[in-house]
Amino acid sequence: MYIPPAAALNKALIMDNGRDVVTMPKKLFSMLLRAAFAAVFDTRWYRAAYPDVAAAVDKGEVASELDHFIEGGYWEGRMPCSFAVNEEWYKRHYSDVREAIETGEIVSAHLHYNKTGYFEGRVPDAAAALVIAKWNHALAEAAQLEGETA
Description:
Blueprint: H1 6-10, E1 14-16, E2 21-23, H2 26-37, H3 43-49, H4 51-58, H5 65-76, H6 87-93, H7 95-102, H8 109-120, H9 126-149
Antiparallel strand pairs: 1-2
Helix pairs in contact: 2-5, 3-4, 6-7
């Protein structure tokens, strides 16, 4: 994995320090996303989860599964992998999920998180809680900033 030094990136970024905003070309943003997702992207899982992508890659319509994910799949709401979930922790923190598992409505915390919990902003385990909280805070700040400029 390679990410260019800050001095090189700074030449391609537009910094508005007064608003704490950085603007960059879409291609550069895609390359940064590729670098960030490289650590978690699971090609085999992605092919199995999204047979349409596997077929497109096999036909040569898409260069690779990761290319599909970065250029379209991420924006369509597809996931890069199946995320690990601490079953007991998740059930303790989400009583609705625990109750649905007990009644048989949901098979497991793992399946719930990977089908809907991730998209609802739920947390898969204690270790992820702090990271997700930081992301949620940054996203809320960005939304507030965007509201101020609208």
